[in-house]
Structures are given as structure tokens and as C-alpha cells.
Recover the amino acids of this structure.
């Protein structure tokens, strides 16, 4: 019984590690070359910021192809690259089923190092579409540019976070957005829906992995 409990804790730790990797893979880092992994950051960095540093979107209703349904609150996470907290990275999660472990240490890795089991694991098309979303939506693309590209007037940051996370999970975990939970007005809900549809549409032609490194959880 004790051994089984230990294995369960180990699985939970590995699950948290996968989620942290997922959260930071999508936006990459400001470093110039992936081959510089060992000397990119000071000791102990990068690491996931505190929960209070994340920015929540609107609660999302969803269904999935496996029959699961419910609601979830998307977040834009903070990743610190130094103790000064300057040059922080903003990141989304690409594993729907696993919770992130806040204030966890990270190391630099590539898409191939992703330890999760969803479609991002070994599907090059999914990887490229997720990368396109991360680069073409907020915050990698500022709000003015995103509004212009999507044609969605009056779009807000919170709406953009909500739609962007939903679009990423659409590709990685068969997430089907079915609307927002109460507490959002109709105009705002409509903008979220339109941005979600834009990000998963045929306009998403994918994007290859760049030379910049991505972040992986340090197990």
C-alpha cells in the first residue's frame, strides 16, 4: 500500500513536470540560439512565477471527443529568467489534463523533449499550428496588431487570453469550445468566439520550430 502511494506521488510529480513544460513551450524565450542552452540563464532560472503572477481569462465551457465536459479557467503564466524578474516570459499551457506547478525550476529544451502524451508529443502539424497561435496571438503579438489581423474590434486582453488558450487546447487535446461561463456579457463572449475561430481556421498555416530555445521542466 505504501509503495503504491509512492508511485502515485511520482506520477503526480511527472504530470506536474509535463504541465510546466507545456506551459512554457508555446512562446519560447528571448534567447538567440538553442545551442546556448547551458549558459543562457543564471543558476536557478528560468522558473515558473507565483500563481498571483498569472493572468486569468474567462471560464470556458468545453466538450471533448472522449465525452468529457465541464468548465475550466485559462491562464497566461509568467516565467522568470533571473532573480531581478526583468525580461519575464509569458506562456500558455499545452496540456489540458495536468495542473501547472507554480514556482518550479525549469531548463531549456526543444519540442522533441516534450514529456507529455497529447497530440503535441509527436505530431509535427499540431506542433506547428500551436506555434502559429502562440506567435500570432496575444501577448507575442500586441493587441493593436491582433485586432487588425483578426478583424475583431474592441478585443480585450482577457478575451484574447481566453480564446488563445482554448485554440491551443483545441489542437493538443481535442478541446471543443462551447462558450463561456456566466459572468461575461454577450459582446465579450462573441469576441472570444470569433478569435477562437480565427486562430483555428485555415488562416493558421502553421509555423516551424525556430532557432530560439524553449523551456522544459527540470525534473
Amino acid at each position: 500500500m505504501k509503495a503504491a502511494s509512492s508511485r502515485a506521488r511520482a506520477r503526480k510529480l511527472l504530470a506536474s513536470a509535463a504541465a510546466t513544460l507545456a506551459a512554457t513551450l508555446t512562446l519560447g524565450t528571448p534567447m538567440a540560439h538553442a545551442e546556448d542552452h547551458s549558459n543562457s540563464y543564471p543558476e536557478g532560472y528560468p522558473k515558473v512565477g507565483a500563481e498571483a503572477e498569472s493572468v486569468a481569462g474567462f471560464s470556458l465551457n468545453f466538450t471533448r471527443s472522449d465525452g468529457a465536459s465541464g468548465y475550466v479557467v485559462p491562464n497566461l503564466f509568467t516565467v522568470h529568467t533571473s532573480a531581478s524578474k526583468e525580461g519575464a516570459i509569458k506562456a500558455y499551457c499545452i496540456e489540458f489534463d495536468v495542473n501547472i506547478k507554480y514556482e518550479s525550476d525549469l531548463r531549456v529544451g526543444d519540442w522533441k523533449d516534450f514529456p507529455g502524451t497529447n497530440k503535441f508529443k509527436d505530431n509535427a502539424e499540431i506542433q506547428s499550428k500551436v506555434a502559429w497561435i502562440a506567435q500570432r496571438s496575444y501577448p507575442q503579438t500586441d493587441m493593436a496588431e491582433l485586432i487588425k489581423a483578426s478583424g475583431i474590434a474592441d478585443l480585450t486582453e482577457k478575451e484574447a487570453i481566453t480564446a488563445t488558450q482554448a485554440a491551443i487546447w483545441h489542437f493538443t487535446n481535442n478541446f471543443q469550445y462551447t462558450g463561456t461561463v456566466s459572468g461575461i456579457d454577450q459582446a465579450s463572449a462573441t469576441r472570444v468566439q470569433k478569435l477562437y475561430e480565427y486562430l483555428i481556421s485555415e488562416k493558421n498555416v502553421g509555423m516551424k520550430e525556430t532557432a530560439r530555445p524553449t523551456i522544459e521542466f527540470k525534473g
